[in-house]
# Entry
Amino acid sequence: MKMSSKLEVALFPSSHGKFKIERAHTMNRQFHRCFSSTSTMFLWALFLIALTASYLSFQSFVDTGNRYFSASWGGIQWEKQVRNSAKIHRSGGMAVLVTGAAGFVGTHVSLALKKRGDGVVGLDNFNNYYDPSLKKARKSLLNNHGIFIVEGDLNDAKLLDKLFDVVAFTHVMHLAAQAGVRYAMENPNSYVHSNIAGLVTLLEACKSANPQPSIVWASSSSVYGLNDKVPFSESDRTDQPASLYAATKKAGEEITHTYNHIYGLSITGLRFFTVYGPWGRPDMAYFSFTRNILQGKPITIYRGKNRVDLARDFTYIDDIVKGCVGSLDTSRKSTGSGGKKRGPAPYRIFNLGNTSPVTVPTLVSILERHLNKKAKKNVIDMPGNGDVPFTHANISLARSELGYKPTTDLQTGLKKFVRWYLSYYGYNHGKPVN
# Structure
């Protein structure tokens, strides 16, 4: 029953003539006449509406205030931290906004740039796709080297605009993304939110900035999809994605091309090939294999059609960092200003791989040697989850344009990873340290 109906029932008789007022008081009669008046009831209704509106306005004010005071960014101290982190300490250095800075590649690239004297400000939303404590540990590592990480979402346009107001970034290293091929079957919207909507939000901020920064961003070798021509070259077709993750990265390449064409943004896309190493992602095979072997749990090894072993062009993190930094160093300036293009700007795409594919069983055998422990293997046929049977990079273009030259083989790279893993997780000869 509505409030007005309840009020009417409480104040008026349901059957006229049966309501008797005994020993009625003058004030009661006046009170009754007051509410019996139609015009007075109208005024009371207006009063109630005004009172409700005032309350809602006040509540909105309180909510806004709470959001303001609970915001994780903004304020004089926050701006000071951003500016200090973005300070350039070398001649001809860059001021770089690194998105996904608490991620695997983002952490390593940020450290490399800071070490040589560039200004670096990080952005990360610390989502829980994998253990956030690892991201927090990376953040502490970056903080120890004077790199400030802003906690926020790539889709927060106001935050991005504020960052560009506080610092005139010369470059953006865009590494934030929802990663993983198989997880796309569980949570497809997260890929659209981060890899497409987030990318567009960032590009909008970059095109409106004055000066416009040069942009280097992480695409993926996954865009080669169902190609069976090897090695993969940048000129190969990329319109047959095998997973939603791959499709969002392909969409990103088309979107960045559009912003380059319309707004004069200088853009370089990097197609990473299976990056591994210290501080890596726990969802990657080499990482989970290491964990399960140490814990005595079985590992699942997929194989392709006709029992063919899967193969990957495993690329060590240090080599990927060299390619990222080389891309920043060789990226020419954007040609727009305040969202208006003055001339054509460079648009580039490079493969960053190791050019030496290794089968997954070989990867496992290397881990067994470094861990001094045999794996319990469960070999099954590869399900239709978006994985591809092999990857192999042609890096001739990156070699000629960026001076890119990978130097770490899988044996050496996994040895460095295992040493980090045992140290970080407190293992001693395969047993946790008490």
